[in-house]
Amino acid sequence: MINPFKKYRIDRLFFHSFAIVLIAVIGVTAWTSYSNSSKALVQTTSHYQQQLLDELNNEITTRLVMIEQISLSSSRDSELINFLLNRQDEFERYRRRAGVESALANLTYAIPLIQGIDLYMDNPILSERQSYIQFRNLGDLNKQEGAGCLAKSDFCWSKEYDFSSAQGEVPVLSFSRKIINENDYLGVLVVHIKANEIRKLLTGNSEGSNRIMADSEGQQIMKIGDTLDQNNWSQWIDLKSNKSGYVHIPATDGSRDTLLVYSRMDNSIWTLIEFTSWKQITASSLKLAEWIGLIGIAAVLLVLLLTHFLRKQFTKPIKNLVTAMRVYSVGGDNVELPVDYENEFGYLFSGYRKQNERIEELYLSLESRYEQQRKAEIEALQANINPHFLYNMLDQLNWMAIEAGQNELSRILELMGRMFRIGLSNGNSFIKIADELLHIECYLEIQQLRWGGGLEYRIIAASELQELYVPKLTLQPFVENSIVHGFNKQRSGYVSIVMERTEDALHIVIDDNGAGLKQPDHSTHKRHTGGYGIRNVRERVAGYFGESYGITLIEREEGGTRVEIILPLLTEPPTRKD
């Protein structure tokens, strides 16, 4: 085990020891008081809210069950059934319609909770627009809010929505029930009740409360106040159980910590949910914890002042020296150590300054040697490519002499003469793009003679780009690699070279339709010239221009290989540094 008095600073050890112990004691005290008091407050609040929600649930259920029973009795009324059977003449049908309308209207007058009633049937006799009773076509049932659930049930409730009535847009809840006689589907009776009346019951005496009324499937029917955005509450509530309860919902996606209290009863299909901010419930507990925390902070500050006074005179010089050593950089803006110390600290500061002077001298010497080595490596890489290229061309000439005969050698030697002239370039490392393209055209023409017309190529470069400079023999290794390796099993091939200017860089794309980068046949003899030439170009580009520019090789989706080369725009060769 490491002895902290040997590893860490003495002033921090003393300060941190006292501070950590004090903070730990205060933190445990604050957390214990907050946790216990907040649990008690949550239990008390949830118990009170559950009792209140149970009472409201019972009252709302009584009202809504009454509507369901009225709807049931009305759907079984003999006069209504006979009217829907549509077995009368027109006069008798009008008479029965008046009787049905009168009976339904009496319900709306007798029960203030009912806003209106719609009867969906075949071939209805339409009512006046101002009437509370509307006869509608059964084919328009899909326009009725909440009627879609009738596909799975004989009756259901809708969620709250705005209903067009004689008084304008009125918020309502609708109860829809199928009318069935001897297995014959005759129509649908829809009773609209005033949502504001149910809202008053849901609010109760708690103004500013946040509540939701949901059905047995967990779908939201009505809400008041600011609630969580959730259509299906089965994530938090067991809808199969008829027991009330509460859940702590942690904050997620910008929402706040919330206490969810819900009421479910045996005689009710409704679930009442109330939301209370967790912060609001635990505010008093948090206040107590904050006071304990403030006392702890005051104690820590007192310890800090005392230890700071004791350590200032002794540890400040050591701290200055450690800081200077930490931020030291060669040639940078370093910390100046004081020069007025004549004791042991003065000896330390003097020795440190002498050490820095020696480091500066060594760094300058190494930097000079590195620059000389870098120049030598670049020149060596440039020199290596000419013998490498000559080897490849001699190999090609040998093959052509055997396979094609002597009649083409004069043209090939002429093209090679041009290529060697450009390759030497009087020892220059950078040449114009026009010369680079001439060099590659000579190479491609030689390959066309070898292939007997099976090789096609194109070169696209704007005239203004051809006046720019690039490192000598940048393109040739990639084109050679396409022909030697990419087309080694093909009788024809295609090479495309496109140069474009993109912002402040030269973008060169070389495409071929050869075998690509991944060749599964490992038995084929592989030439190492292509790999060396590409590596040579990579190293030269990195040596000249750094990591901002470079070369990328990728597989083309349509087959073959794509080479992308990014180079700077050089209007003249780079100046050589001695």
From TrEMBL:
<feature type="domain" description="Histidine kinase/HSP90-like ATPase">
    <location>
        <begin position="475"/>
        <end position="569"/>
    </location>
</feature>
<protein>
    <submittedName>
        <fullName>Sensor histidine kinase</fullName>
    </submittedName>
</protein>
<dbReference type="Pfam" id="PF02518">
    <property type="entry name" value="HATPase_c"/>
</dbReference>
<keyword id="KW-1133">Transmembrane helix</keyword>
<keyword id="KW-0418">Kinase</keyword>
<dbReference type="InterPro" id="IPR010559">
    <property type="entry name" value="Sig_transdc_His_kin_internal"/>
</dbReference>
<feature type="transmembrane region" description="Helical">
    <location>
        <begin position="12"/>
        <end position="34"/>
    </location>
</feature>
<dbReference type="Pfam" id="PF06580">
    <property type="entry name" value="His_kinase"/>
</dbReference>
<dbReference type="GO" id="GO:0000155">
    <property type="term" value="F:phosphorelay sensor kinase activity"/>
</dbReference>
<feature type="domain" description="Signal transduction histidine kinase internal region">
    <location>
        <begin position="376"/>
        <end position="452"/>
    </location>
</feature>
<dbReference type="InterPro" id="IPR036890">
    <property type="entry name" value="HATPase_C_sf"/>
</dbReference>
<keyword id="KW-0812">Transmembrane</keyword>
<dbReference type="GO" id="GO:0016020">
    <property type="term" value="C:membrane"/>
</dbReference>
<keyword id="KW-0472">Membrane</keyword>
<keyword id="KW-0808">Transferase</keyword>
<dbReference type="InterPro" id="IPR050640">
    <property type="entry name" value="Bact_2-comp_sensor_kinase"/>
</dbReference>
<feature type="transmembrane region" description="Helical">
    <location>
        <begin position="291"/>
        <end position="310"/>
    </location>
</feature>
<dbReference type="InterPro" id="IPR003594">
    <property type="entry name" value="HATPase_dom"/>
</dbReference>
